[in-house]
Amino acid sequence: MFYSYVDDVKGDYESVAFIRSSKSYAKFTLSGNAFTWEDLKDYKIPKVFEPEGKLKDIEIPLLAKGVALYVGQPLGMVIGKDPYEAEDKKEEIEVEYEEINQPLYPPDNVILSFSKGNYELGENELNLKLKFNRQSPAPLEGRAIAVRHEDGKLLIRISNQAPTVVRKIVSKMLSLDEDKIEITVPRVGGGFGAKQDIVMEELAVIALSFYTGKNLKWIETKSEHIMTSQGRGQSHEIKVYFNNNGKITGIIDNLDYDMGAFPLPWSGISPLYVTLMSMKSVYNISIRNNVRVIGTNNPPQGAFRGFGRPEAFFIIERIMDEVSRKLNINPIELREINLNKDLEIGNVTQVLNKMKNKYKEYKEKYGKGIGVSLYVHYASPTSKVLIGEEKSFVGGYECVSIRLKTDGKVEVKTTVVDMGQGISKVLKKIVSETLNYDKVNVIIGSQDVNGYGSWASRSTITAGNAALLAAKDLKEKIDKLGGIERVLDKLNNSPWDIDDKEFYSIKCYEPQDMVGAISGQISVVNFDGLRIKALENYTIVDVGIAGDEEEVKGQIIGGIVQSLGGLLYEDVNSPFDYLLPTAVEAPKVSVELLNTPSETPGGYRGIGENSISGAYASIANAISDFFPVYEIRVKYNA
């Protein structure tokens, strides 16, 4: 139950367990021998982002400060010689509650409100209420952290997507120089966005280790993760204006964003802005967004694969489908009518033609239960957006170093991490093919180069292109001296005054603008009056030049199955019985890739979050052939 990779870390560690709130909003007192916020009050969690506009500057607490703000919030901590003793000690702590019945943030819990965009009236009007409830990323391997003191350094082993960002946050929290902090990240057993942020529990373990001088570790349980690591959480009241020819003239979207009790250090409320940016998708439509960010007695809303895109595509694609039904226009033709033809996102015409053929095939085969989504997946935000607009200390670039060593190996270093997307394999392939040399070793999660890790479908776009540029530069140096074999011979057997440092290159890369990929999905489901069964899914994506086509297809298939779980099975209100889809529930998936190069050195496009972002919408539209879907998770037979 408690096993994780941190159990393989050599050395003696004591284990931490958290006393968690069983109330959603209450004053509390702890009785017993536990560490509380009072012990750690000198350590403040910094924010990666700067509060935008009139967003209230809300403190992010390591542990609850006398008031529990949500079920599962850590109130205190205990230390045991192993996880089992820590759990026993936790049971010895008594908690008394006095429930609170008033707004979390008076007078009305609205943390931020603003409006943007315009709209035009049309011949017809449609009103919709669409809701995307909270869900948990639920990776196979939950969070785990081991903190050790050695040779004047703080050694942190953590399952995280962005180790360099972790080091910056920890440095600021502890007022400790970054060179005194060493972060090690193994192959991450699934991230799905949850491990982009370093969360309060992980930071509390680090702070407690620093405070006590003890070597500590913590391994998150499945129920802890589902209870406290959540994304999504948006409600939309929508008015749609459209003409009889199928042209949607305007949309008014009244959006409530469930922030939770406070923002996370890095995510903040960024998923909201990604939703707003993504809602127009591939369409030429005027949208007016009236936005409220609501503080709630839920866990902080964090990153979850898609990061605001699934919510946006669910909204716009359900609108497309509802208008299609009202006017009795073929759903793909309706999308074509509203298409923005000026986007540089790949071969839109080919995607549409192939979708029309597949839609016709499914209609003839099944007749009913067929849903469509058409969308553009933008990846790899730039420093202009992150630093310039969001006031973040995280940039959009990634640096990769490549060195030919005297042992004959080519060493590649990058801050991006492997979390199931196979980036090590992709980088090795890029460097090997460029150098025409297969002795390549990729070191992920490195702190020896600048960069910001794996998130926002950015790894291949940034690190892949940087690796390509560095490999080309290194090849040029080597070719001038007659090739790798001759260089290695000279390095090892010659009186030349050179060493492997001479055969080194480092390049950094970020795109000028986010890189888009035109994408489409068609899903087929059956509903027998009792249960929904996913039958087939066809996904077509213009991936540009694929780093590895099999890895790309695996990412696409995995995202489709993951969205199916979010639509039909997963319920954060039941953390001890959180149902995840298996191969039994998965549909038959066929993936088609197009290869229109992007305007990056390698021609790559982002993939990691692509399919999950569009699959919620296509499956929801397929179900709506039987009954209309206005809410995720889908509720039926209720």
TrEMBL record:
Under the heading SMART domains, the entry gives: Ald_Xan_dh_C (SM01008)
Domain Aldehyde oxidase/xanthine dehydrogenase a/b hammerhead, chain residue ranges per copy:
5-101
Is Cytoplasm among this UniProt entry's keywords? no
Task: Extract one GO molecular function annotation from the record.
Answer: oxidoreductase activity
Which InterPro entries does this chain map to?
Ald_Oxase/Xan_DH_a/b, Ald_Oxase/Xan_DH_a/b_sf, Ald_Oxase/xanthine_DH-like, AldOxase/xan_DH_MoCoBD1, AldOxase/xan_DH_MoCoBD2, AldOxase/xan_DH_Mopterin-bd_sf
Query: Any keyword Oxidoreductase?
Result: yes
Gene3D superfamilies xref list: Aldehyde oxidase/xanthine dehydrogenase, a/b hammerhead (3.90.1170.50), Aldehyde oxidase/xanthine dehydrogenase, molybdopterin binding domain (3.30.365.10)
* Recorded superkingdom: Archaea
Alphabetized, the UniProt keywords read: Molybdenum, Oxidoreductase
Task: Output this protein's name.
Answer: Aldehyde oxidase/xanthine dehydrogenase a/b hammerhead domain-containing protein
Q: Which organism is it from?
A: Acidianus manzaensis
List the lineage, top down: Archaea, Thermoproteota, Thermoprotei, Sulfolobales, Sulfolobaceae
